[in-house]
Write a structure and sequence with these properties.
Structural class: alpha/beta
CATH topology of one domain: Rossmann fold
Distance between the termini: 43 Å
Number of helices: 7
Radius of gyration: 19 Å
Strand content: 15-25%
CATH architecture of one domain: 3-Layer(aba) Sandwich
Length: about 260
């Protein structure tokens, strides 16, 4: 496992000439083509694009779960060649152990890695569950939790190993609209309290504008970067501040939608 590199001058993530081709029984799929961009430390970046444009492939490469066909990914200045302890992942579905309590699921990565969990670890797991709004639910099984609550457990589990980088692969897409918005605000609150470099995959324009400092827009397959947009909106993006941002949000939504529609045509 590659340790984090703490040199402050290094960007958190660099995609350098990244390309990916998959060879399957049905033929050759060109997933990514010459992807180049850099993510600064503690930046919240949303990667926005249509289904099949290689968004999740990018996450797998950052995590060291997939090697690119061409180019390379660097994390804190080091080429990614294997899974890293300083990278946490939240998947589209929380994939919790159904027989384990919420706190058991949170400590699972440590138990799997070292074979032991001490009193301080259990205390930190409970503190994380409180941080994500699940105080009092530590002993509940996944079947006793709503979809949004299960995803909160997944976020706490990803944060438990104290990663410098948090990868999120459409983590709220299976939730209803109100829960999805609530989870978005909760994620921003946690991120502001415990700064991380976040790469958040989504195909929702409104979600990207709600959450991100920056939006990287991908073309249909093969995925290429067609826009790299700094989001010029103050935080928080709800309540009174949200109303003040409404005009700009509408303008940015129209711009992003036009990019996606034009490229899909």
């Amino acid at each position: 496992m590659t340790p984090a590199n703490d040199r402050p001058g290094d960007p958190a993530i660099v995609f350098d000439g990244l390309g990916q081709v998959f060879h399957t029984r049905s033929g050759r799929t060109h997933a990514l083509d010459h992807v180049d961009f850099t993510v600064a430390r503690h930046q919240f970046v949303a990667v926005l694009g249509p289904s099949g444009c290689g968004k999740s492939t990018l996450l797998r490469m950052i995590a060291g779960l997939l090697q690119p066909t061409s180019g390379e990914v660097r994390v804190f200045g080091l080429k990614v060649a294997e899974p890293r302890d300083d990278v946490g992942i939240v998947f589209q579905k929380p994939t919790l152990l159904p027989w384990a309590s919420a706190e058991d699921n949170v400590v699972f990565p440590l138990r799997h890695k070292t074979g032991r969990v001490d009193a301080a670890d259990w205390e930190r797991a409970r503190a994380l569950l409180t941080t994500v709004g699940l105080g009092g639910f530590e002993e509940r099984l996944p079947a006793e939790l709503s979809g949004g609550m299960q995803q909160r457990v997944g976020i706490a589990r990803a944060l438990f190993m104290e990663p410098d980088i948090l990868l999120m692969d459409e983590p709220f897409s299976a939730l209803d609209a109100l829960t999805r918005e609530e989870m978005g605000f909760e994620l921003v609150r946690v991120w502001e309290a415990q700064p991380k470099t976040v790469v958040f995959i989504t195909h929702s324009i409104s979600e990207a504008l709600l959450l991100a400092d920056r939006i990287v827009v991908m073309s249909p397959r093969p995925g290429r970067v067609i826009e790299d947009l700094i989001v010029p909106l103050s935080r928080p993006r709800a309540g009174e501040t949200g109303f003040q941002n409404a005009g700009k949000i509408h303008e940015l939504s129209g711009h992003l939608r036009s990019l996606l529609v034009q490229r899909a045509a």
